[in-house]
Amino acid sequence: MSRVALVTGGSRGIGAAISTALKDAGYTVAATYAGNDEKAAAFTAETGIKTYKWDVGSYEDCAAGIAKVEADLGPVEVLVNNAGITRDAPFHKMSPTQWKEVMDTNLSGVFNMTHPIWPGMRERKFGRIVTISSINGQKGQFAQVNYAAAKAGDIGFTKALAQEGARAGITVNVVAPGYINTEMMATIPEKVMDQIVAGIPVGRLGEAAEIARTVVFLASDDAGFITGSTISANGGQYML
Ligand SMILES: NC(=O)c1ccc[n+]([C@@H]2O[C@H](COP(=O)([O-])OP(=O)(O)OC[C@H]3O[C@@H](n4cnc5c(N)ncnc54)[C@H](OP(=O)(O)O)[C@@H]3O)[C@@H](O)[C@H]2O)c1
């Protein structure tokens, strides 16, 4: 029986590449999304990957949604916390709503998804949890106090939980992408894009498939000795 992998925000962008790569690697994949029904339906039609709609910011919705996925497909053995949003503004203009929305999705969402799945992983003595943070959670970024705080929080969450999972065969890791060639980047003006690329030593944006391959490796049996780690995939833009 193939392992079940659940990818939040797995219907488009980096998450879609992760869902597809996990499916290609032999996993039974479920992908979640927040509200874009059209994209999710198109993704399912194209890939055959089941999609489920709920807000990762709600603990109750996560618990109910995970129960539905497990009833449909079996116990979740690989969880990829990928769902994320930005609500950028310089700090003096950042509203409490912009702060809260980003924290709810990008940090509390990771707790809300991981907590209901954790007991089953402990019982089965196997689990893989991979959270998608960001280069901006490592180095900070102008107008992203909310995003950088949440993404840095994901790294702290991972280091602490990795210690609790270690003896139970559960690894907990982070992938921190730099600038990735997604729909979001297509909206950036060419001049700004040139400046961004000039700051990336490899001289190009990353591809979603490159992030996906990193996740597939961390999910594999081969990666059993890697836990509590943050793998930077940023073309050398920021080295820790
Ligand atoms: N793109 C980059 O260059 C980059 C760089 C570093 C890190 N990252 C991180 O990588 C991850 C994916 O980024 P992306 O650019 O691929 O994002 P994206 O294209 O905007 O897709 C985001 C996905 O997350 C889902 N989502 C958003 N809020 C949600 C919520 N509250 N509950 C459930 N699902 C939710 C979206 O669902 P709908 O389709 O329904 O909206 C969508 O499937 C994020 O965590 C992001 O912070 C991205």
TrEMBL record:
Gene Ontology annotations for the cellular component aspect, listed alphabetically: cytoplasm
InterPro entries per record: Acetoacetyl-CoA_reductase (IPR011283), KR_dom (IPR057326), NAD(P)-bd_dom_sf (IPR036291), Sc_DH/Rdtase_CS (IPR020904), SDR (IPR050259), SDR_fam (IPR002347)
Enzyme Commission code: 1.1.1.36
Alphabetical keyword list: Oxidoreductase
Single GO BP term: poly-hydroxybutyrate biosynthetic process
Protein name as catalogued: Acetoacetyl-CoA reductase
A Pfam family assignment: adh_short_C2
Molecular-function annotations in GO: acetoacetyl-CoA reductase activity
Entry's family note: Belongs to the short-chain dehydrogenases/reductases (SDR) family.
Domain Ketoreductase: 3-183
SUPFAM superfamilies the UniProt entry points to: NAD(P)-binding Rossmann-fold domains
